[in-house]
Amino acid sequence: MIFFYHMKNLNMKSIFCSIFMSILFFTATAQVSNDQFSIITKVSADWCPNCGGWAWDVFEDMRTDLADKNVIYVLAHRSGDLETPTSRAWCENLKYQYQPEFYLNNDFQNMNSSTAPDAITSMGEQIDLLSSFGAFAGVYGEGIISDVDTEEITAHVDLEFYGEITGEYYIGVYFIQNNIIANQSQQGDVLQPKLLTDAFTEDWYGIPVTATTGVQSFDFTTMRPAGFSAEEGDTEILTVVWNKIDEETYVIFNAHVNGTIQQVSNTTELTTIQQSLKGNIIANTATLSFDSAQNIDNATFFINDISGRSVYTQSVSNLQEGNNSLEADVSNLTNGIYVMGLNVEGTLTTVKVFKK
């Protein structure tokens, strides 16, 4: 059931009835987050005056006004110098007609410069409504690169359906780049925020998945896109669960975005740590244990939330060859998924943990 598809055609009472009936099939899980995310897409073109005019300002206003919402932003160019096969296919899936256009998930948002403030408020209400009851499927994705001289990048994805759900589903993984400077009509050479560039798979919508319970894990490897940067926030890994409605329509079912690119070392020392790394959170205490092939003078013990934001860091020194164990008080953290790890001279080893 896709209760958020064509929401604009439903009244509020019918929306609540659909959600209430659907929530009966939901069961909690400790594997991936049950947060429901929505996607706001701006269909654009670099040559379009309105795209760089009122719609440019509206896109900035959205990201400010809806900053506390479960929402992910995509800037998809459907033509021009910033168009890619992935961005074009994304726009075609939305059934775009012109540009600029804005979509909440797959629903067209009819707005202009004067109606945008009210439209943004309405979108925020719909996003809150969708996120208030959790998700039918949880998904988590992260980008991983090696510190060796390679142009490849891997995306690791964990997916879990919370009950038996009918329909045809796909997992797609995408690059969202926040470090691309390019010409935009009315703006000149500017930073293009939330720019959709490439997909990890040959088919833009990804690969088929089975909608059965239990965690499913996938690894996708592709070449890094032009202008790729592993600096924090420069490149985001967007993972989308799609529900295929017909041969030409894929509806957003849930999504996740991660702005941290993990770097895995091939050196003996870091490989030993990664292979032996274990983490858990018990009674508000986070514990990270690992073996080291040699002494380590300086490192950083860190914990990030599922969005890649740092929630804890601790400098450690004089780690000894052999078994080591680090602890942190995490009583201030809310329940959910976290990434815990060790940073040794800029190279990370990580493990996912769950606080409940």
Summarize the structure.
With 356 residues, the chain is an alpha+beta fold. 17% of the residues lie in helices and 46% in strands. It is globular, with a radius of gyration of 21 Å.
CATH fold type of the largest domain: Immunoglobulin-like
CATH homologous superfamily label of the largest domain = Immunoglobulins
* Beta fraction: over 45%
Shape: globular
Radius of gyration of CA atoms, rounded to a whole number: 21 Å
If you had to describe this structure to a student in words, what would you say it looks like?
The chain has helices at residues 12-23, 49-52, 54-65, 85-93, 116-131, 268-276; strands spanning 38-45, 71-79, 101-104, 107-109, 137-146, 152-161, 168-177, 181-184, 188-191, 195-199, 207-209, 214-223, 235-246, 249-258, 261-264, 278-282, 285-292, 296-305, 310-319, 322-329, 336-344, 347-355. It is α+β, with helices and mostly antiparallel strands and 356 residues long. It has 2 domains: 1-262, Immunoglobulin-like; 265-355, Immunoglobulin-like, CATH 2.60.40. Strands 7, 10, 11, 13 and 14 form a 5-stranded antiparallel β-sheet that branches. α3 (54-65) runs parallel beside α5. Residues 1-31 have low confidence and may be disordered.
What attributes characterize this protein structure?
4-stranded mixed β-sheet, Immunoglobulin-like, 356 residues, 2 domains, alpha+beta, disordered N terminus
